[in-house]
Specification:
This protein has 335 residues and is α/β, with parallel strands linked by helices. The chain is built from twelve helices and ten strands. Strands 2-1-3-4-5 form a five-stranded parallel beta sheet, sandwiched between helices. The radius of gyration is 19 Å and the shape is globular.
Length: 335
Protein backbone atom coordinates (compact mmCIF):
# COMPACT_ATOMS: atom_id res chain seq x y z
CA UNK A 1 0.00 0.00 0.00
CA UNK A 2 1.07 3.64 0.07
CA UNK A 3 0.30 6.94 -1.61
CA UNK A 4 3.40 6.70 -3.81
CA UNK A 5 1.72 4.17 -6.09
CA UNK A 6 -0.98 6.70 -6.96
CA UNK A 7 1.60 9.46 -7.42
CA UNK A 8 3.53 7.31 -9.89
CA UNK A 9 0.41 6.74 -11.99
CA UNK A 10 -0.44 10.44 -12.03
CA UNK A 11 3.14 11.24 -13.09
CA UNK A 12 2.79 8.91 -16.10
CA UNK A 13 -0.75 10.05 -16.94
CA UNK A 14 0.17 11.60 -20.35
CA UNK A 15 1.69 8.30 -21.48
CA UNK A 16 -1.33 6.34 -20.24
CA UNK A 17 -3.76 8.65 -22.02
CA UNK A 18 -1.77 8.48 -25.26
CA UNK A 19 -2.04 4.69 -25.20
CA UNK A 20 -5.77 4.88 -24.50
CA UNK A 21 -6.30 7.31 -27.37
CA UNK A 22 -4.55 4.91 -29.72
CA UNK A 23 -6.44 1.84 -28.54
CA UNK A 24 -9.85 3.49 -28.62
CA UNK A 25 -9.35 5.24 -31.95
CA UNK A 26 -11.45 2.40 -33.35
CA UNK A 27 -14.87 1.28 -32.10
CA UNK A 28 -15.52 -2.02 -30.33
CA UNK A 29 -18.67 -4.09 -30.08
CA UNK A 30 -17.82 -5.09 -26.52
CA UNK A 31 -15.15 -5.09 -23.83
CA UNK A 32 -14.19 -8.08 -21.68
CA UNK A 33 -12.26 -7.47 -18.47
CA UNK A 34 -10.58 -10.63 -17.23
CA UNK A 35 -8.29 -11.85 -14.48
CA UNK A 36 -7.69 -14.56 -11.88
CA UNK A 37 -8.39 -14.33 -8.15
CA UNK A 38 -7.86 -10.79 -6.91
CA UNK A 39 -7.51 -9.61 -10.51
CA UNK A 40 -10.92 -11.07 -11.37
CA UNK A 41 -12.50 -9.14 -8.50
CA UNK A 42 -10.74 -6.11 -9.88
CA UNK A 43 -12.23 -6.91 -13.30
CA UNK A 44 -15.70 -6.87 -11.73
CA UNK A 45 -15.16 -3.31 -10.54
CA UNK A 46 -13.43 -2.25 -13.76
CA UNK A 47 -16.31 -3.48 -15.93
CA UNK A 48 -18.80 -1.62 -13.74
CA UNK A 49 -16.76 1.58 -13.97
CA UNK A 50 -16.70 1.25 -17.75
CA UNK A 51 -20.46 0.63 -18.04
CA UNK A 52 -21.21 3.59 -15.77
CA UNK A 53 -19.43 6.03 -18.07
CA UNK A 54 -19.46 4.48 -21.56
CA UNK A 55 -22.03 3.06 -23.98
CA UNK A 56 -20.09 0.02 -25.21
CA UNK A 57 -21.13 -3.15 -23.33
CA UNK A 58 -18.57 -4.62 -20.93
CA UNK A 59 -18.45 -7.74 -18.76
CA UNK A 60 -16.05 -9.35 -16.28
CA UNK A 61 -15.05 -12.96 -16.97
CA UNK A 62 -12.46 -15.19 -15.23
CA UNK A 63 -9.51 -16.12 -17.45
CA UNK A 64 -10.43 -19.79 -17.14
CA UNK A 65 -13.82 -19.14 -18.74
CA UNK A 66 -12.17 -17.43 -21.71
CA UNK A 67 -9.76 -20.33 -21.99
CA UNK A 68 -12.42 -23.02 -22.11
CA UNK A 69 -15.48 -21.21 -23.53
CA UNK A 70 -14.35 -18.10 -25.44
CA UNK A 71 -17.15 -18.38 -28.02
CA UNK A 72 -19.74 -17.91 -25.26
CA UNK A 73 -18.38 -14.46 -24.42
CA UNK A 74 -16.81 -13.07 -27.57
CA UNK A 75 -19.57 -11.87 -29.88
CA UNK A 76 -19.55 -9.33 -32.69
CA UNK A 77 -16.82 -8.26 -35.04
CA UNK A 78 -14.50 -6.26 -32.76
CA UNK A 79 -13.83 -7.22 -29.14
CA UNK A 80 -11.31 -5.67 -26.77
CA UNK A 81 -10.10 -8.04 -24.05
CA UNK A 82 -8.48 -6.39 -21.03
CA UNK A 83 -6.47 -8.83 -18.89
CA UNK A 84 -5.65 -7.50 -15.43
CA UNK A 85 -2.52 -8.93 -13.86
CA UNK A 86 0.19 -8.20 -11.34
CA UNK A 87 2.56 -10.75 -12.87
CA UNK A 88 2.73 -11.59 -16.57
CA UNK A 89 3.70 -15.22 -15.88
CA UNK A 90 0.32 -16.44 -14.59
CA UNK A 91 -0.45 -19.48 -16.74
CA UNK A 92 -4.22 -19.02 -17.00
CA UNK A 93 -3.83 -15.44 -18.19
CA UNK A 94 -1.31 -16.41 -20.85
CA UNK A 95 -3.37 -19.35 -22.05
CA UNK A 96 -6.61 -17.36 -22.11
CA UNK A 97 -5.05 -14.56 -24.12
CA UNK A 98 -3.49 -17.00 -26.57
CA UNK A 99 -6.90 -18.61 -27.01
CA UNK A 100 -8.90 -15.41 -27.58
CA UNK A 101 -6.35 -14.11 -30.04
CA UNK A 102 -7.20 -17.08 -32.25
CA UNK A 103 -10.62 -15.51 -32.79
CA UNK A 104 -10.91 -12.87 -35.55
CA UNK A 105 -11.54 -9.31 -34.40
CA UNK A 106 -9.99 -9.69 -30.93
CA UNK A 107 -7.35 -7.29 -29.64
CA UNK A 108 -6.13 -6.70 -26.10
CA UNK A 109 -5.17 -3.97 -23.66
CA UNK A 110 -3.55 -5.13 -20.43
CA UNK A 111 -4.05 -3.32 -17.13
CA UNK A 112 -0.91 -4.41 -15.37
CA UNK A 113 1.98 -3.93 -12.97
CA UNK A 114 4.34 -5.86 -15.25
CA UNK A 115 5.68 -4.42 -18.51
CA UNK A 116 6.32 -7.99 -19.71
CA UNK A 117 2.58 -8.12 -20.39
CA UNK A 118 3.57 -6.57 -23.74
CA UNK A 119 4.74 -10.06 -24.80
CA UNK A 120 1.16 -11.27 -25.24
CA UNK A 121 -0.92 -8.10 -25.61
CA UNK A 122 -1.03 -5.48 -28.34
CA UNK A 123 -1.10 -2.68 -25.76
CA UNK A 124 -0.87 -2.15 -22.02
CA UNK A 125 -1.20 0.55 -19.38
CA UNK A 126 1.15 0.21 -16.44
CA UNK A 127 0.98 0.89 -12.73
CA UNK A 128 4.64 1.61 -11.88
CA UNK A 129 6.24 1.30 -8.44
CA UNK A 130 3.99 -1.53 -7.31
CA UNK A 131 6.60 -4.22 -6.67
CA UNK A 132 5.52 -6.49 -3.80
CA UNK A 133 7.56 -9.12 -1.99
CA UNK A 134 4.38 -10.38 -0.36
CA UNK A 135 2.33 -13.15 -1.94
CA UNK A 136 -0.70 -11.00 -1.15
CA UNK A 137 -1.80 -8.26 -3.55
CA UNK A 138 -2.25 -4.92 -1.79
CA UNK A 139 -0.80 -1.86 -3.53
CA UNK A 140 -1.05 -3.66 -6.89
CA UNK A 141 -4.81 -4.09 -6.39
CA UNK A 142 -5.50 -0.48 -5.45
CA UNK A 143 -3.22 0.92 -8.16
CA UNK A 144 -4.83 -1.12 -10.93
CA UNK A 145 -8.31 -0.03 -9.84
CA UNK A 146 -7.00 3.52 -10.11
CA UNK A 147 -5.88 2.71 -13.67
CA UNK A 148 -9.33 1.30 -14.44
CA UNK A 149 -10.92 4.51 -13.16
CA UNK A 150 -8.67 6.60 -15.39
CA UNK A 151 -9.38 4.37 -18.38
CA UNK A 152 -13.16 4.71 -18.10
CA UNK A 153 -13.08 8.43 -17.35
CA UNK A 154 -10.63 9.35 -20.09
CA UNK A 155 -12.27 7.34 -22.85
CA UNK A 156 -15.69 8.77 -21.93
CA UNK A 157 -14.30 12.32 -21.99
CA UNK A 158 -14.72 12.97 -18.26
CA UNK A 159 -11.36 14.64 -17.76
CA UNK A 160 -12.83 16.73 -14.96
CA UNK A 161 -13.25 13.56 -12.89
CA UNK A 162 -9.57 12.72 -13.33
CA UNK A 163 -8.51 16.27 -12.52
CA UNK A 164 -10.56 16.09 -9.32
CA UNK A 165 -8.42 13.14 -8.23
CA UNK A 166 -5.09 14.97 -8.32
CA UNK A 167 -5.10 14.87 -4.52
CA UNK A 168 -5.61 11.10 -4.47
CA UNK A 169 -2.20 10.40 -2.87
CA UNK A 170 -3.00 12.76 0.03
CA UNK A 171 -6.45 11.28 0.59
CA UNK A 172 -5.04 7.77 0.33
CA UNK A 173 -2.41 8.45 2.97
CA UNK A 174 -5.04 9.79 5.33
CA UNK A 175 -7.40 6.87 4.77
CA UNK A 176 -4.57 4.35 5.17
CA UNK A 177 -3.95 5.59 8.71
CA UNK A 178 -7.65 5.67 9.54
CA UNK A 179 -8.25 2.14 8.20
CA UNK A 180 -5.23 0.87 10.13
CA UNK A 181 -6.53 2.26 13.39
CA UNK A 182 -10.09 1.14 12.79
CA UNK A 183 -9.18 -2.43 11.86
CA UNK A 184 -6.93 -2.80 14.91
CA UNK A 185 -9.70 -1.47 17.16
CA UNK A 186 -12.33 -3.82 15.71
CA UNK A 187 -10.23 -6.96 16.11
CA UNK A 188 -9.08 -5.92 19.59
CA UNK A 189 -12.63 -5.31 20.76
CA UNK A 190 -14.10 -8.41 19.08
CA UNK A 191 -11.58 -11.24 19.37
CA UNK A 192 -14.43 -13.74 19.25
CA UNK A 193 -15.46 -12.84 15.68
CA UNK A 194 -15.27 -15.93 13.46
CA UNK A 195 -17.31 -14.96 10.38
CA UNK A 196 -16.42 -11.88 8.36
CA UNK A 197 -18.89 -10.58 5.75
CA UNK A 198 -18.35 -7.73 3.28
CA UNK A 199 -21.27 -6.09 1.46
CA UNK A 200 -21.35 -3.60 -1.40
CA UNK A 201 -23.24 -2.52 -4.50
CA UNK A 202 -22.14 -1.07 -7.82
CA UNK A 203 -18.41 -0.42 -8.07
CA UNK A 204 -18.03 -1.72 -4.54
CA UNK A 205 -19.22 -5.26 -5.22
CA UNK A 206 -15.90 -6.29 -6.76
CA UNK A 207 -14.09 -4.48 -3.96
CA UNK A 208 -16.24 -6.37 -1.43
CA UNK A 209 -15.13 -9.63 -2.99
CA UNK A 210 -11.53 -8.55 -2.63
CA UNK A 211 -12.03 -7.60 1.03
CA UNK A 212 -13.44 -11.08 1.53
CA UNK A 213 -10.41 -12.53 -0.22
CA UNK A 214 -7.95 -10.56 1.88
CA UNK A 215 -9.44 -11.76 5.16
CA UNK A 216 -9.51 -15.33 3.85
CA UNK A 217 -5.94 -15.26 2.46
CA UNK A 218 -4.15 -13.25 5.12
CA UNK A 219 -6.08 -14.38 8.19
CA UNK A 220 -7.22 -17.88 7.08
CA UNK A 221 -10.67 -16.69 8.19
CA UNK A 222 -14.19 -17.65 7.21
CA UNK A 223 -15.22 -14.72 5.02
CA UNK A 224 -17.97 -14.02 2.51
CA UNK A 225 -19.01 -11.20 0.18
CA UNK A 226 -22.34 -10.30 -1.40
CA UNK A 227 -24.24 -7.57 -3.11
CA UNK A 228 -25.62 -5.75 -0.07
CA UNK A 229 -29.30 -6.32 -0.81
CA UNK A 230 -28.69 -9.98 -1.65
CA UNK A 231 -27.57 -10.73 1.87
CA UNK A 232 -31.11 -11.02 3.15
CA UNK A 233 -31.87 -13.78 0.66
CA UNK A 234 -30.52 -16.67 2.68
CA UNK A 235 -26.98 -15.80 3.89
CA UNK A 236 -28.17 -13.69 6.83
CA UNK A 237 -29.29 -16.91 8.54
CA UNK A 238 -25.67 -17.28 9.70
CA UNK A 239 -25.53 -13.94 11.54
CA UNK A 240 -24.95 -14.15 15.28
CA UNK A 241 -22.89 -12.36 17.93
CA UNK A 242 -19.67 -13.73 16.38
CA UNK A 243 -20.39 -12.24 12.95
CA UNK A 244 -18.68 -9.08 11.73
CA UNK A 245 -20.27 -7.25 8.80
CA UNK A 246 -18.35 -4.69 6.77
CA UNK A 247 -20.46 -2.40 4.57
CA UNK A 248 -19.03 -0.40 1.67
CA UNK A 249 -21.70 2.24 1.18
CA UNK A 250 -22.06 4.82 -1.56
CA UNK A 251 -24.16 7.89 -2.12
CA UNK A 252 -26.97 5.97 -3.85
CA UNK A 253 -27.48 3.24 -1.26
CA UNK A 254 -27.53 4.99 2.12
CA UNK A 255 -31.17 4.39 3.10
CA UNK A 256 -31.22 0.70 2.26
CA UNK A 257 -27.76 0.28 3.79
CA UNK A 258 -28.97 1.76 7.08
CA UNK A 259 -31.99 -0.53 7.20
CA UNK A 260 -29.85 -3.57 6.43
CA UNK A 261 -27.25 -2.80 9.06
CA UNK A 262 -29.90 -2.12 11.70
CA UNK A 263 -31.43 -5.51 10.95
CA UNK A 264 -28.07 -7.32 11.09
CA UNK A 265 -27.26 -5.65 14.39
CA UNK A 266 -30.61 -6.80 15.78
CA UNK A 267 -29.48 -10.37 15.04
CA UNK A 268 -26.38 -9.81 17.16
CA UNK A 269 -23.93 -8.97 14.37
CA UNK A 270 -21.21 -6.35 14.77
CA UNK A 271 -21.46 -3.74 11.99
CA UNK A 272 -19.00 -1.37 10.36
CA UNK A 273 -19.59 1.01 7.47
CA UNK A 274 -17.39 3.02 5.12
CA UNK A 275 -18.83 5.72 2.92
CA UNK A 276 -19.31 9.46 2.43
CA UNK A 277 -22.17 9.49 4.97
CA UNK A 278 -21.01 6.66 7.22
CA UNK A 279 -20.53 8.91 10.23
CA UNK A 280 -24.24 9.81 10.11
CA UNK A 281 -25.71 6.39 9.30
CA UNK A 282 -27.91 4.34 11.60
CA UNK A 283 -27.14 0.72 12.38
CA UNK A 284 -23.35 0.96 12.59
CA UNK A 285 -21.14 0.04 15.54
CA UNK A 286 -18.13 1.46 13.69
CA UNK A 287 -18.03 4.07 10.94
CA UNK A 288 -15.39 5.63 8.73
CA UNK A 289 -16.20 8.60 6.54
CA UNK A 290 -14.64 8.54 3.05
CA UNK A 291 -13.86 11.70 1.05
CA UNK A 292 -17.07 13.54 0.16
CA UNK A 293 -15.46 15.01 -2.93
CA UNK A 294 -15.24 11.58 -4.58
CA UNK A 295 -18.16 9.78 -6.13
CA UNK A 296 -18.51 6.01 -6.02
CA UNK A 297 -16.65 5.86 -9.34
CA UNK A 298 -13.71 7.86 -7.99
CA UNK A 299 -13.49 6.30 -4.53
CA UNK A 300 -13.38 2.66 -5.61
CA UNK A 301 -9.58 2.40 -5.43
CA UNK A 302 -9.63 3.50 -1.79
CA UNK A 303 -12.43 1.30 -0.48
CA UNK A 304 -10.48 -1.94 -0.34
CA UNK A 305 -7.88 -0.62 2.12
CA UNK A 306 -10.02 -1.60 5.12
CA UNK A 307 -10.18 -5.22 3.97
CA UNK A 308 -6.40 -5.37 3.72
CA UNK A 309 -5.95 -4.09 7.25
CA UNK A 310 -8.64 -6.39 8.65
CA UNK A 311 -6.89 -9.35 7.03
CA UNK A 312 -3.60 -8.22 8.56
CA UNK A 313 -4.97 -7.86 12.09
CA UNK A 314 -6.79 -11.19 11.87
CA UNK A 315 -3.45 -12.75 10.94
CA UNK A 316 -1.78 -11.13 13.96
CA UNK A 317 -4.48 -12.50 16.23
CA UNK A 318 -3.76 -16.00 14.89
CA UNK A 319 0.03 -15.57 14.72
CA UNK A 320 -0.02 -16.12 10.94
CA UNK A 321 2.47 -14.64 8.47
CA UNK A 322 0.11 -12.47 6.41
CA UNK A 323 2.65 -12.00 3.62
CA UNK A 324 3.10 -15.71 2.97
CA UNK A 325 -0.14 -17.62 3.62
CA UNK A 326 -0.14 -21.39 3.32
CA UNK A 327 -0.61 -22.98 -0.11
CA UNK A 328 -0.33 -19.66 -2.00
CA UNK A 329 2.19 -18.02 -4.35
CA UNK A 330 2.43 -14.68 -6.17
CA UNK A 331 1.44 -16.21 -9.50
CA UNK A 332 -0.10 -19.56 -10.36
CA UNK A 333 2.27 -21.17 -12.86
CA UNK A 334 1.01 -24.52 -14.12
CA UNK A 335 3.27 -27.18 -15.56
Amino acid sequence: MGARTFEAILETLPQIETTLDQVFSEPYDSLIFTGCGTSFYLAQTASYLWRALNHTPAIAVPCSELLFFPENYIKGNQTLVLPITRKSCTTEVRQAMDRVHEIPGVSSLAITCDADSSHYNENYILAPETAEDSVIMTRSFTSMIFLAEILSMHVSGHEEMINAMRDYPVEAEKLLKECDGLAEKILREHPEADLFVTLGQGAYYGVSNECMNKMKEMGIANSEAYYSMEYRHGPMSLVDENTFLLLLSNEKTRKTDEDLMEQMRSFGGVTCGLGPDADQMRGLDYALKTPEAYSELQAAALMGLIGQFLGYYISLRKDIDADFPRHLSQAIVLK
